[in-house]
Specification:
- The protein has helices at about 15-30, 65-80, 110-120, 150-165, 170-175, 185-200, 260-280, 295-305, 315-325, 350-360, 375-380, and strands spanning about 35, 40-45, 50-55, 60-65, 90, 95-100, 105-110, 205-210, 215-220, 235-240, 245-250, 290-295, 330-335, 365, 390, 400.
- Helix content is about 35%, strand content about 20%.
- The chain contains eleven helices and 16 strands.
- The strands form four sheets. The chain has a five-stranded antiparallel β-sheet with strand order 5-6-7-8-14. The chain has a five-stranded mixed β-sheet with strand order 11-10-9-12-13.
- The longest helix is centred in the middle third of the chain and has 25 residues, at about 260-280.
Length: about 425
């Protein structure tokens, strides 16, 4: 017997597909166009000018437009669906959202989520530490005592959403620790607990977006940094008034030189940067994409199209991708000193001053840390480590970036 399903039900394989198709038909009928970059984004244009955007995640809907247009879109949708109107967004997909219209900034955080995670593993009252990782992990030894992999894996999984949403400062630590999911040992478990101790003292940190919006990508690589197999780790962070994307991953093969390791990193960065650039163009936001690296060898060989890498396909293809984008003018590749490289915290553990400096430069701020890091991240930055940290006198916060050479984060931390 073959039955025809008239309505899609939860727990069926085709439910999400049917739900998405039904919603897509409605918004296209209203006049929206589906994004070619993200299937959950729909854009409404009026005379070649973007006037509204709709973001869909399963059955949670976010409408971005002025109040008059939002009302019209809601009226059209209510004719087809039963909807609950929660007003101006303050909570979406586990993230708290706070908008400051006066300073044109948006803060997002997951304070309650992190507190819940700490309580789940009984670390909510643990003593805070200033860094998410120790500066050096030792190579594993055969006689090292193993620990329970299920607890270890559960601890890793619980932090991945916070890492990808609002806490870029723990990206590298998660990337390193998850490499031992299959066979964790005590030293790795202690390192993982240290990450929870760090979050215990910084659970009130949040990520701020605002200020001048230039699309910038910082790419870096830590050559042969893994103590177990000497593979390199590539890191990247993309900023647009705040950290909009970041990543830290071990490279697929053992690089034979620092330049090879940097080729892999810049290729990954260019791929991610292209997606975000196309997305901004669909939203009517023209951008000039800047890519920064602290490797003079990388910049010289890409600009002159002189490949010095090995005959390994996944490294060569990433080099030529970056070289082609630089030749066509799609990216502007520039040098930045290592001390000002924002992707450095995604390739290796850093000491306390660098953690605070780079966190603030990515748009992170914190109030009431209670662990000696300062009552406000912007205040804690005033410690002599940031050469170009100039306090603005208009109460909008600290202006970070003159020393970084990139004018990132005009308002990062409210000045007392």
């Amino acid at each position: 017997m073959v039955l025809r399903l008239r309505k899609s039900l939860y727990a069926l394989k085709q439910s999400s597909h049917v739900c998405y198709g039904t919603f897509k038909e409605l918004v296209i009928w209203i006049g929206f166009v589906a994004s070619r970059v993200d299937g959950g984004l729909f854009v409404l244009e009026d005379h070649s000018r973007v006037v509204a955007a709709v973001v869909l995640y399963i059955d949670d809907l976010l409408i971005i437009a002025n109040e008059g247009v939002i009302g019209q879109i809601k009226d059209q949708m209510k004719k087809r669906f039963r909807m609950q109107d929660h007003g101006s967004v303050s909570f979406y997909l586990g993230m708290n959202i706070k908008r400051n219209r006066e300073h044109h900034t948006i803060d997002i955080h997951q304070h309650s989520c992190i507190r819940t995670i700490l309580g789940k593993f009984r670390m909510d009252d643990s003593r805070p530490v200033a860094m998410p990782m120790v500066l050096k992990l030792h190579k594993r030894t055969p006689d090292e005592e193993a620990c329970d992999p299920s607890i270890y894996q559960s601890m890793i999984a619980s932090l991945r959403y916070a890492m990808s949403a609002t806490r870029p400062d723990i990206t590298y630590a998660i990337g390193v620790l998850r490499q031992y999911n299959h066979d964790p040992h005590n030293e790795r478990m202690v390192a993982h607990k240290r990450l929870f101790w760090y979050l215990s003292g910084t659970k009130d940190w949040r990520l701020r977006f605002g200020g001048e919006g230039e699309l910038r990508s910082y790419v870096d690589s830590d050559y042969a940094g893994c103590p177990d197999d000497y593979e390199s780790t590539c890191g990247l962070v993309i900023t647009f008034g705040g950290a909009v994307d970041r990543g830290s991953r071990k490279e697929k093969s053992t690089a034979q030189s620092t330049t090879n390791a940097e080729y892999y990193a810049v290729g990954i960065g260019c791929m991610r940067l292209t997606q975000i650039s196309h997305l901004l163009n669909e939203l009517g936001i023209p951008t000039i994409t800047h890519v920064f690296s602290d490797s003079q060898s990388l910049i010289g060989t890409i600009n002159n199209r002189i490949y010095l890498g090995t005959a390994v396909a996944h490294i060569a293809t990433k080099y030529y991708l970056a070289a082609d984008m630089a030749r066509d003018g799609d990216i502007d590749l520039s040098y930045v000193p290592t001390a000002e490289m924002l992707a450095d915290c995604f390739t290796q553990p850093l000491p306390k001053p660098a953690v605070m400096q780079q966190g603030a430069a990515m748009g992170m701020i914190g109030i009431g840390l209670g662990n000696g890091l300062g009552n406000d991240l912007g205040i804690g930055m005033r410690n002599g480590f940031g050469k170009g940290l100039a306090t603005r006198g208009n109460g909008c916060g600290n202006r970070i970036g003159e020393g970084l050479g990139n004018r990132i984060g005009i308002a990062v931390g409210k000045q007392n």
